[in-house]
Design brief:
Elements lengths: L10 H4 L5 H18 L4 E6 L11 H19 L8 E5 L5 H11 L4 E6 L16 E4 L2 H10 L1 E6 L4 H15 L9 E4 L1 H7 L2 H6 L11 E4 L2 H13 L23
Parallel strand pairs: 1-2, 1-5, 2-3, 3-4, 5-6, 6-7
Helix pairs in contact: 2-5, 3-4, 3-9
């Protein structure tokens, strides 16, 4: 008698609308298993445009991202704790993402790429550690993994995607949906002050003045490294994962 096919062996079903929750769950569980296997606890996430070429008009940002990723990887490898290393993580594509993965690789470090298939720009770069190259279909699951293990965030010049990723992290911090301190370093003061008028947001009452303390600016890899290392070593050792608890204990609930 021919063996009947199990549901998860049915490729047509697994690609259907009905199986979408299973595909979403897989994009949480597979990275979780992979990071546990390779002992990944804390990441330094680099955001930035895939369109910035090393030889292009904004090529200095490519070079700076590469150098900063190299510097933080050297710093991390020199930390005394073997259980608490910071691994450079990017969106896995070209441009700034390639530069950051490349810099970490230059320093002999492991480096993560959370790639997502896009029509034109997004192809995994060759500097990602093979075992830590992950492919996503859902943007929101990819962004969850950017936030889940982030110990710091570095935001280089970019477009819609970079703005989306940066603002989501700032919103999580502003609304205290992250339990741990995650320094956000915005790289390229001239670019970002032209693109976003943060002071105008305060002036119009859209954000509070103290919200400007959620991020820092830097314009050289050395200055960025100093901010990152100071901020990541000053607070108590962070909790993992970084998200707020799923439920707030009720005031009338008594623990046994």
């Amino acid at each position: 008698m021919r063996r009947l096919r199990l549901a998860y062996e049915n490729r047509r079903f697994m690609a259907s609308d009905e199986a979408r929750p299973l595909r979403i769950l897989a994009e949480y569980l597979e990275p979780l298993e992979r990071f546990r296997e390779y002992g990944i606890r804390d990441t330094i996430v680099f955001f930035g445009s895939a369109r910035i070429a090393q030889e292009g008009p904004l090529g200095r940002y490519y070079d700076d991202a590469r150098e900063l990723a190299r510097l933080v990887t050297v710093w991390s490898k020199g930390l005394p704790s073997h259980a608490h290393k910071y691994v450079v993580c990017t969106g896995g594509g070209g441009g700034i993402m390639e530069a950051a993965n490349r810099g970490a690789s230059d320093a002999g470090g492991r480096t993560i790429g959370l790639n997502i298939a896009l029509p034109h720009e997004q192809r995994p770069n060759r500097y990602i550690t093979r075992e830590l190259a992950l492919e996503f279909h859902y943007f929101f699951m990819r962004k969850l993994w950017f936030a889940h293990l982030a110990a710091a965030l570095v935001v280089f010049p970019g477009g819609f995607g970079t703005l989306d990723e940066m603002m989501e992290m700032l919103t999580l911090m502003q609304t205290r949906k992250l339990e741990r301190h995650v320094p956000v370093l915005i790289y390229g003061t001239e670019f970002w002050n032209e693109v976003i008028d943060f002071d105008a947001l305060v002036r119009h009452g859209m954000i509070a003045r103290e919200d400007l303390e959620l991020f820092y600016f830097a314009d050289t890899p050395q200055a960025a490294l100093e901010i990152l290392t100071t901020e990541m070593t000053s607070p108590p050792e962070p909790k993992t994962p970084a998200f707020t608890p799923s439920a707030t204990p009720s005031a009338d609930r008594h623990d046994a």
